[in-house]
Design a protein that fits this description.
This protein is mostly beta strands. The chain is 15% helix and 38% strand.
Length: 428
């Protein structure tokens, strides 16, 4: 839609090229404020009309977020060249479209400078390298290839340095530790695929749905709980981890996600979104009862006590890691930082560490870039440690079953920024 608007704007008829031109408006009655500026027998300037066209063009340019940078630069400079002819008569529409105020020129130049600077900063992110010096103690191994079409969680960056990302779990390791499950986008669908960690080759499709959002293995390894998006709602299902496509529907008619089974297999904890609020719920597999517990998202049940870890957004918009005892009602903030957000907690197999995603700002000379990295902390929140530092986004980390490795999704090691699954050793 942007190109037709732009062409229309460039090739306006000759008679409409002069903002200073005035033409006689026929006598007409006025009906309310919509036509209140056109009075009987008055001269009507079309300057306001062109001002509105200006605004429509500027807004459309950003709403549609032109991705081809060369075309974007062409549009910007073309607008500037056209509008800069402030004292010439419009002899040809292609050269001078409208007389432009100096303030408008300043606004266009400022937007252009900001856009070029932002694009240049984005281009400085070199995804092709596998690791950076801060990660020298870790060994990184690429598990998948570009042909596996690994889904990358959505990451959104604002011009003010804020970063938001999809916190749902889209990786998990089988109970025997020999296979990894991941989301793959193929043939306009998103499904769960399973790959053998000890063999090279393709992956096996495990679900046959339209838009799987996230998933997790049950503690006994027999089932997979997953979320599927259907229009404006997300529904949770459970299916066999090894055979068939038959699914048991767990929830319906709501925005639910992040399903995960309790250690005793009696409950499925999940996140429910209501308006802009997120809360932790559970579904009792035996009696089909639903229970709600507290605010939060990304629940991770503890094994030896009636509690779970979750992420919460504080008053300043930063994510924190909390521990909630759903029998006593005790709530404890475990990990928090005024400059970072944390989400998606997961406890190590030995119960000593918490693995999670956190935001980070890379500052190098005049270059500043917000991204996501992987962090760990002791189970009580102490010894907070950042373990990845790459400019690429590192997301959805999971432990290996023996706790010696961490698997995660990242664009690192790819010239094109394509996401893949990586493995790193855990040396703490």
């Amino acid at each position: 839609m942007l190109f037709p608007l732009f062409v229309f704007y460039v090739f306006l008829p000759q008679t409409l090229c002069f903002p200073s031109q005035k033409r006689r408006v026929p006598e007409r009655k006025t009906y309310g404020s919509a036509t209140g500026n056109i009075k009987k027998g008055k001269n009507f300037s079309i300057n306001n009309f062109y001002t509105y066209i200006n605004y429509i063009l500027y807004i459309t340019l950003y709403l549609y977020k032109i991705q081809h940078f060369s075309f974007k630069i062409f549009v910007y400079f073309y607008i500037i060249i056209i509008f800069a002819n402030t004292n010439t008569k419009c002899k040809q529409p292609i050269y001078t479209i409208i007389i432009m105020k100096n303030t408008q020129i300043v606004v266009i130049l400022a937007i252009l400078f900001f856009d070029i600077s932002f694009h240049a900063a984005a281009q400085k992110v070199d995804y092709s390298i596998v690791s950076v010096p801060e990660e020298s103690s870790n060994q990184f191994v690429k598990i998948t290839t570009d042909a596996d079409c690994v889904c990358m969680p959505i990451v959104k960056r604002s011009t003010k340095g804020r970063i938001d990302w999809l916190t749902n779990r889209i990786l998990d390791i089988s109970i025997d530790g020999l296979k990894i499950a991941y989301l793959s986008a193929r043939n306009k669908t998103t499904n769960i695929f399973i790959k053998d960690l000890n063999r090279q080759g393709g992956s096996i499709q495990r679900t046959n749905r339209s838009a799987v959002l996230d998933f997790s293995f049950s503690p006994d390894g027999k089932y997979i709980c997953f979320t599927e998006m259907r229009g404006n709602i997300n529904q949770i299902f459970r299916t066999n981890a090894d055979n068939g496509y038959v699914c048991r529907q767990i929830t319906s008619g709501n925005k639910d996600c992040s399903p995960i089974c309790s250690s005793d297999m009696n409950q499925i904890f999940f996140t429910r979104q209501e308006m802009k609020n997120f809360s932790i719920w559970s579904y009792n597999i035996q009696n089909n009862f639903l229970s709600t517990y507290s605010t939060g998202m990304n629940p991770y049940p503890l094994q030896k006590e009636p509690a779970y870890l979750c992420a919460r957004i504080n008053a300043t918009g930063k994510g924190e890691i909390w521990k909630i005892n759903y029998e006593t009602g005790t709530e404890e903030c475990i990990v928090s930082d005024t400059n970072r957000s944390f989400t998606t907690p997961m406890i190590s197999p030995d119960g000593q560490w918490i693995l999670f995603v956190g935001s980070n700002i890379i500052n190098e000379n005049s270059f500043s870039y917000a991204n996501t990295d992987i962090f760990v902390a002791k189970i009580d929140g102490t010894n907070l440690t950042q373990i990845t530092y790459h400019a690429a986004d590192d997301l959805s980390p999971v432990w290996s079953r023996d706790g010696k490795y961490i698997y995660f999704i990242s664009q690192r090691g790819s010239d094109t920024g394509t996401a893949n699954i990586w493995r790193m050793n855990f040396n703490y």
